[in-house]
Design brief:
Elements lengths: L1 H13 L14 E5 L5 E7 L2 E6 L6 E8 L2 E3 L4 H7 L11 E7 L3 E7 L8 E9 L2 E3 L3
Antiparallel strand pairs: 1-2, 1-8, 2-3, 3-4, 4-5, 5-6, 6-7, 7-8, 8-9
Length: 136
Amino acid sequence: MASYRALNLQLEKHKTGKPPDLPLEAYEGQYHNTAGTFIIAIAQSGQGLKMTMQDLPLTWYHLRPYNGNTFYWPANRNAEIEQSMWPIPSPSYHKIVFEGNKTHGIDQLTWKHDPNASPEVFRKRQIIGKTLIGKL
């Protein structure tokens, strides 16, 4: 538990309070890893975003603004054991970085879900009707 308290202190220490660069709905969508084997769904939820993994209703995180296009969720050991895929007490694990621009919108997110690997890029795909559009 002490490591989670220290993790929250570290997350809060580096939080800038800079609001998201775009309206929250600009971040919404389905994001797929390069292999196309992992899906992250992002939806607006109150003053933040809800991130759901692999369409699993019990595996989700409430993302709060952290610094512009970076969002995070506070570390909570008990909640992560119940609802997360991998409870990992690492600051980078608790942050999602969205990328894009005001002209074309958000087109990808980066998540360092494995502390021993490079961050993974997930590209946004649009669903029009029943057709999935976007690059793998």
